[in-house]
Amino acid sequence: MTPATIPVFLNGRPVTVPLGATLAALVAQVDPELATALAAGQARATDARDLPVAADLVLSAGAIFRVSKSSRAAAGPADA
Fold first, then answer.
1. pLDDT in tens, 8-45
2. Most buried pick, 8, 25, 32, 62, via CB within 10 A?
3. Model pTM greater than 0.70?
4. Any idea what DSSP says for residue 76?
């Protein structure tokens, strides 16, 4: 870790990211497919207290996040 980086945790895994990085950038660094799902609203991001967080959240040192794909199918048009 250098002064320009901070440690955070994603899905139980320690990761070092640049200072000022967002949650979306963290997820993209670790799992690009999950990052795509998060951007499309097909994944959910929560903090250490299991509270929802936005993908554009700027990270702080030691922050803990869980990001997972939704097990529900994407909502489509209602049957007529």
1. 999 999 999 999 999 999 999 999 999 999 999 999 99
2. 8
3. yes
4. -
